[in-house]
Specification:
The chain is of the alpha/beta class. The chain is built from 6 helices and 9 strands; from the N terminus they run H-E-H-E-E-H-E-H-E-H-E-E-E-H-E. Helix 4 links the parallel strand 4 and strand 5.
Length: 238
């Protein structure tokens, strides 16, 4: 049986599916046969993408949304935590409300998503979790305190989950990409395409039953002759 045949009809919950890399992940999984459910504030338009309202800024809304998916879909096989805010600002001047939003969306909502999904994933006997990390979690840059700190903490959560949940049949993968061309009009050859990242997420979810991919690091294939040396652009120089 091929990976696509194993995945046909399986249910996956995805956050941050309304645009950019998240939308590419949704489309790639749908094409591979997954039933894709989106949790988020902004409704999505494809008829095959089922929406459940959920605001990641308020992690307490995540659990009920996950349970709604499991009830309506009948089961849950995988989750992909992709929703993110990129709060940028110097440590000395970053507004505390932006820091709190970054922690709530990038970190606490992921914990809430995982806690709500785990009973269903355990019952599925082979559930998968993909956490979308970033090079920012290990390659820090000026102005990136909130974004870097939350992505670094996400790496820790992914490893702890991998250690704790394999005994229950649930496997976790951290996908850590570098620079992605995920904004409208961005066709930089020095960044990865959104669907390139999305195919990697699909591959992780469809790994053989006896294998878990602990972490995948992705880098753009091309590097500028004069690498950027400051700020967010550092992520294009590794």
């Amino acid at each position: 049986m091929t990976a696509a045949e194993r995945s046909a009809g399986r249910t996956v919950v995805l956050t941050g599916a309304n645009r950019g890399t998240g939308r590419a992940i949704a489309e790639t999984l749908h094409t591979a046969g997954w039933r894709v459910w989106a949790l988020g504030r902004t409704p999505t338009d494809p008829p095959w993408l089922r929406d459940v309202p959920c605001d990641l800024r308020y992690p307490e809304t995540v659990g009920p949304a996950v349970n709604q998916v499991a009830e309506e879909a009948g089961t849950l096989h995988a989750v992909v935590a992709n929703g993110v805010v990129r709060s940028l600002g110097a440590v000395g001047s970053l507004p505390l409300d932006q820091w709190r939003e970054a922690v709530d969306v990038n970190l606490t909502s992921v914990l809430a998503l995982t806690q709500a999904a785990l009973p269903h994933l355990r019952a599925a006997r082979g559930g998968r979790i993909v956490l979308m990390g970033s090079h920012a979690g290990s390659r820090f840059f000026e102005g990136g305190a909130a974004y870097c700190a939350t992505k670094a903490a996400l790496k820790a959560i992914a490893e702890v989950l991998l250690l704790e949940e394999r005994v229950h049949g649930v496997c976790t993968t951290l996908v850590s990409p570098g620079a992605i061309a995920n904004l409208p009009g961005d066709d930089s050859p020095l960044k990865m395409g959104m669907f390139s990242v999305a195919r990697t997420v699909c591959w992780a979810l469809e790994a053989p039953d006896d294998t878990v991919i602990g972490e995948i690091e992705l880098r753009p294939a091309r590097l500028t002759a004069r690498p950027a040396v400051s700020g967010l652009d550092r992520l294009q120089a590794v």
